[in-house]
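worker-03 picked up job from queue 'complexes'. Input manifest follows; two sequence lines, order preserved.
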Amino acid sequence: MYKYNDFDTAFVTERNAQFRAQVARRIDGSLTEDEFKPLRLMNGLYLQLHAYMLRVAVPYGSLNSAQMTQLALLAEKWDKGYGHFTTRQNIQFNWPKLSDVPDMLDALAEVGMHAIQTSGNTIRNVTSDHFAGAAADEIEDPRPVAELIRQWSTDHPEFQFMGRKFKIAVGAAAEDRAVLKAHDLAVRIVQNATGETGYQILVGGGLGRTPMIGQVINDFLPRADLLPYIESVVSVWNQIGRRDNKYKARIKITVHEHGIDDIRARVAARFALIRPSFTGADQELLSEIKTHFAAPNFRSGSTETYGAAYKADPVFRAWADTNLAEHRNETHAIVTISIKKHGATPGDASADQMRAMAELAAKYGYDELRISHQQNVILPHVHKSDLPALHARLKQHDLATANIGLISDIIACPGMDYCALATARAIPVAQQIATRFDALKLEHDIGHLQIKISGCINACGHHHVAHIGILGLDRAGVENYQITLGGDATWTANIGERAGPGFAYDEIVPAVERIVTAYLDLRTDAEETFLETFRRVGMAPFKAALYPEAVKKVA
Amino acid sequence: MTVIVTDTGFGPDTWTAGYQDDTALDLTSDTDPVLLVDRLAAQVQMIRIDFPSFADGRGFTIARQLRLSGYKGHIRAGGHVIADQYAMARRAGFDDVEISDQLAARQPEEQWLARANWQQHDYQARMRGAAPASA
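worker-03 finished. Artifact:
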C-alpha cells in the first residue's frame, strides 16, 4: 500500500488550504460562480440534483483499514450515514454541506486520501485492476505504475483546464478487469518477445453518447518513456481536441476525426521534444514507489477448515463458488464482498458496513481492501482457513450475498434519484431485477451475466459494454428503457447491439426476464454463458423473445 | 488599463514596444505551437498568449511547447487568467500574467501572492528531476 511521504502530505495540506480559501473567496465575491465551478470540480465537489456531492478518490482502488474507517466517519459525521462506490474506484458522499467540505478534505488527508481531480476537465483518478497484487494472471502488480501516473497527473500545470475530462487505466494481467479499452488512455503492462517488460498504450476508448473502443497507438513502449509519452498524448489532444462542442471534445472524437496514424505521428513529434525533459527522476521515484507495494508475507498453514466448511455448509459453498477468485498463492483466495444485496442500491455501503469491512481486512486480509469498478469491495488476500469465519462475520453485516458475476451483480449509475443529468431512474430498475431473479431462484442456474444500467446517454453505468445493457431515456416526459445485447467490458471489448424499441419503466423487468428465458432455452448446456450464446446465435432469437407482438404481426 | 502580475505582486507594464512590430507576437489560444516554432524569428523578445476564457487551457500547452522548443524570450499570459492559475502559468513557462484592472480589483494582489510559491509542492519538478521549464 502506498504511504504518503512528506512531499505528498505537504502537497495535500497546501491543496486543502487553497480550497478552503477558494470557498471563502467564492462567498466574498472574489471568484464568480463560473470561476469557482471548475475549481470545486477539480477538488471533487459536484452540484447534484438535490445537494452537493463529494467524490473521493480511491486511487487504483486500493485502501487500508484506517482509510476505510475514515470513510465511515465521513459518512456519519457529514453525510447521511452511507457512501456510494462508483465505477471509477471512487466513493461519493451525496449530502455534504459546502461549508463542511474543507473539513471533510482535511479528515481525508489525515489518512492519506484526497478528492483531487475526481471531476472537472482534468486527468481523473487513475484506475486499475481490482485484483492487482493478488491475481494469478498478472505480469506484475500494476499499482506502482498507476501511483506514478497519479503523482504525475496531480496538479499538472498544463492539464487543469482541458477541453474535457481524461481517464487513464492501468492493467497488467492476461484478463482485463479494468475496462482498459473504454478509457481515454490505457496502459497495459506487457512483455515482448525477448521477455522485456514495457507498455502497450491504447487511446480513444470511451463510452458516453459515442461509444468507442480504444486503439493501440504504441505497441511496446520502453519503461522509461511512459510519462513523457502519456504527456505527449494529452498535450497533443489539449491543443487540437475540439472545444466547440463538449460532446465532441473527448480524445475518442479527436482520434476518430484525425485517424490513429495522424495522432500517432503528432504524438511522436511532441514526444521528441518532451522526452529530454525527463532526466530519470521518475524512474527512481517508481523504484521507490514499488517498495510500498511489496506483497505481504503470505501465511502458510492448513486450509482444512475451508474444505470442511465447503463440504458441510451449502450457504458457504454458494458464496465460495461465486465470490472467491484464484489467488497467486494457493493457500489464499481473493474475496469479493458484494455491495449488491438483492433489493439494495448497488454500490451503497453504510458506515457500519464500511467499519465492518475495515475490521475484517485488518483481521483476515493483511489490512488491504480494494474497490472494483463493478462497485464491490475486495479483500485481496485471505488465507483459506479464515474464509468460514470471515463469511460468518460478513453475514452479520448483510455483506455475504453470493452473487458476484451473476445477474444481480448489477452496475447502476445513481440515475434520477441523485444525478442532475439523468433522464431516468437506474437504481430502482437494478433493485427490481435483482429482487425478481432472487425470487425466481434462477440466478445461479443462469450463471455469469452482467447487467449494467445507465440513467442517461452519458453512460456512467457502462451499459454499452454489458451483456445486457439498459439505457434509461426520457421520451416526452416518460421514462423509456433501451436494451442492448452482447456488450463486453474485457479485452475482447465490444459495444452492445441495440435490440429494438425501448420499454416503459414497468415493462423493463419483464423484458429482461424474456431475454434470460430465451437464453436458458437457447444455450447448449449450463456451461455456455449468456455472452457465448449470444455470439453463437446472434440477435434474432432474442429479438423474437423481446417483441413477441412483432413476430405475430409478421406471421 | 491592465496590471502585470509577477512573483512579487502587481506592477505596471514595462513592455513599451507594443505588439505591432516583429519583436513581439500576440497569439490566440488556437495557435498551433508546432507551426509557430517554425516561423519564430530570432528578434522575437515578447510573446503574449491570450486566454479568451480562464477555462481555455490551451495557452498552457503553447507556452510549454515554446519553452521545450528553446524559446528563451518573455512569455506573457493575457486576458482572463485567475489567481488560482498563477502557479500553473509559471510552471508551464509563462513569465508573468496580464490582467484587467477590474479583475485586479476583484482578485487583489494578496490572492495572487498566495500562489507565488509555485516552485513548492510541484510534482512535475519531482518527476523531471529539474526545475520546471520556465526561465
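worker-03 released lock.
Residues 6-27 of chain A form the longest helix (22 residues).
The domain at 6-110 of chain A is CATH 3.30.70 (Alpha-Beta Plaits).
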